[in-house]
Amino acid sequence: MRLGMRFGAGLLIVTALGTTAGAQARPVNATRATYVKPSDAVLKKRLTPLQYEVTQHAATEEPFHNAYWNNHAAGIYVDIVSGEPLFSSLDKFNSGTGWPSFTKPLVPRNIKTDADHELGYERTEVRSVAANSHLGHVFDDGPPPTGLRYCMNSAAMRFIPVDSLAADGYGQYAALFKTKR
Question: Is 86 annotated as catalytic?
Answer without folding.
Answer: no
